[in-house]
Amino acid sequence: MANETSYDVAVLGSGPGGYVAAIRAGQLGLKALVIEKDRHFGGTCLHVGCIPSKVFLNTAELLDRVRRGGEQGVVVDGLRLDWPALMKRKNRIIRKNAGGVAFLFRKNNVETLHGLGRVAGPGKLEVQTEEGTSLVTARNIIIATGSEPRSIPSVPIDGQSVVTNTEMLALASQPASLGVIGAGAVGVEFASMFHSFGTNVVLLEVLPKLVPVEDEEISDELFKLFKKRGIETLTNTRVEGVTPANDGSGVDVQFVRPDGTKDSRSVTKLLVAVGRKPRTENIGLEQAGVELDRGTVVVDEFMQTGTKGIYAIGDVVATQQLAHVASAEGVLAVEHIAGRAVRPLNYLHMPGATYCSPEIGSVGLTESAAREQGYDVKIGRFPFAASPKATILGESDGFVKMVSESKYGELLGVHIIGPHATDLIAEAVVALEHEATAESLMHSVHAHPTLSEAVGEAAHGAFELPLHV
């Protein structure tokens, strides 16, 4: 690449938002460049987030299924977790997917530049590479720099005993015990998988419930099922600090229980999973006149900032910090740049997916949010205990909950906890996007025996009565 080159679109960051934006730009015939600070493409999601954690979760699920195999006539002697083999598989899958992103860049004529980029003004980027500084000019710039783990003052992260998801996914060996601070999606996933691995886990959450963004009944069910699995789960619990363990094997975690009593736990590793903050510092945004609100980039419904030609997508803006949201925003931004007729995203229709055991899938309004907005709410529920397919799988915990408006049956939200919930929620997303009603879902025939029947039965529950419970 020449020292100075001009592009239609320059994308800063190659995570799920950035690389999808660049690919769509190439598909639309725009001259596109991706600037990535790391040696490999894919961002946090691919390298230390969504993908490697799901590799771990898949192994955890397999272990649990084999342990229950005797119920289904399959007996495995000497079952154990092979940690080095798990890490090799994780790394192989990451390499394959990173290579796939690079292939898609080549296929769609997207140019790439490895280096630390910063906005030097409207239409200008400076990129610090190994060879020196390159100046990039672009008619449009898309900020897709993602996010990084937050910390809390009382628990300094040292990368050794007190860690983030990044270090957890690169451990040399399985820890004997694990403390997890924070019971959002990341926290419950790590607590779930490491418990399945055989690690002794304690989960600490300062709020009254697990997965706080989910419907209350979903949170309550997850709490109950974590307890049933033997995961020590403490809500309304404030962590006050950590000190090195006396035997040098980890840390002692000090916390305050709901009744005000002080307690502690000794753990080999302590995962801080209290959320993520946008990477917007020191990349030249303020100098370019881009407005920030508490660290997030302010954008309009088409992902445009107030500075002409600069867009922002993904974790740097104040929308859900989800890979698929970033990808959708990337497509929207590029199609707007290309002059296509575009429709703003409906964030209420964005699915949430949490891959602990049992899984959680959700979309739309929770019951409490619907009531707060003044809807006359009607609820339909169906337990997986009454699903033949769930019984066959040996995974009958959980339920489907459908939130609808009582007069016209408008579908407002669907919340699932149970087997394959993250896949089942797709039907609800389509239903909401196409303005389906509980009645129309009730009359949509679901194949038997499948888990998806539970969605249809929940619709029966919202409109009339479930048939099989």
Give an overview in words.
The protein has 469 residues and is α/β, with parallel strands linked by helices. It has three domains: 4-148 and 277-347, FAD/NAD(P)-binding domain (3-Layer(bba) Sandwich), CATH 3.50.50; 162-274, FAD/NAD(P)-binding domain (3-Layer(bba) Sandwich), CATH 3.50.50.60; 358-463, Enolase-like, domain 1, CATH 3.30.390. It has helices at residues 16-27, 43-48, 50-67, 83-107, 165-168, 185-197, 216-229, 323-337, 367-372, 388-393, 421-433, 438-442, 453-463, and strands at 4-12, 32-36, 110-114, 116-121, 124-129, 132-143, 147-149, 162-163, 177-181, 200-204, 232-234, 238-244, 251-256, 262-267, 269-272, 276-278, 292-293, 296-297, 310-312, 352-354, 359-364, 377-383, 399-405, 411-418. Strands 1, 2, 3, 4, 5, 6 and 19 form a seven-stranded mixed sheet that branches. The chain is globular, with a radius of gyration of 24 Å.
In short:
The chain is α/β, with parallel strands linked by helices.
Helix content: 25-40%
What percent of residues are in strands?
25-35%
CATH architecture classification name of the largest domain? 3-Layer(bba) Sandwich
Assign the structural class, choosing from mainly alpha, mainly beta, alpha/beta, alpha+beta, or little secondary structure.
alpha/beta
Spans of at least 5 consecutive residues with low confidence:
none
For the largest beta-sheet, the strand count, sense and barrel status come to: 7 strands, mixed
What is the highest CATH level, the class of the largest domain?
Answer: Alpha Beta
- Termini separation (Å)? 65 Å
The count of DSSP E runs of length 2 or more, i.e. the number of strands, is 24
Alpha-carbon Rg, integer: 24 Å
- What would you give as the CATH superfamily of the largest domain? FAD/NAD(P)-binding domain
| CATH level-3 fold name of the largest domain | FAD/NAD(P)-binding domain
Total number of helical segments?
13
Mean pLDDT: 96
Shape: globular
Number of domains: 3
Oligomer type: single chain
